[in-house]
Design a protein that fits this description.
Shape: elongated
Order of helices and strands: EHEEEEH
Strand content: over 45%
Structural class: alpha+beta
């Protein structure tokens, strides 16, 4: 078994969609977001700040305050195993902007 799980582009897209729903007109978001892939269930706990254009209100930049990400893999015996993954906040930021 691999020692590090891969976060796919689809997972980043899933996280971004979930965060965008919470973000709406807020400047600060904190929460837990999940996405499924062939490797398992990817979980992201994140707090971030959105910077908006004062005229349009559109998000122009995002900063991380804190994040933690791991992947949950179901074992054959029914147990769950937590695995580290290659989550990269800058890739999430690209999806959000």
């Amino acid at each position: 078994m691999k020692s590090i799980c891969t976060i796919t582009k689809g997972c980043y897209r899933d996280f971004a969609e979930q965060i965008a729903l919470k973000l709406e007109q807020r400047s600060y978001v904190t929460g837990v977001f999940q996405s499924e892939s062939a490797e398992g269930r990817h979980r992201l706990e994140v707090s971030l700040i959105a910077y908006r254009d004062p005229e349009s209100g559109q998000v122009v930049d995002i900063s991380e305050v804190w994040w933690d990400s791991y992947t949950i893999i179901e074992q054959q015996d029914g147990e769950q195993k937590l695995m580290i993954n290659d989550f990269d906040f800058s890739r999430l930021k690209e999806e959000l902007l």
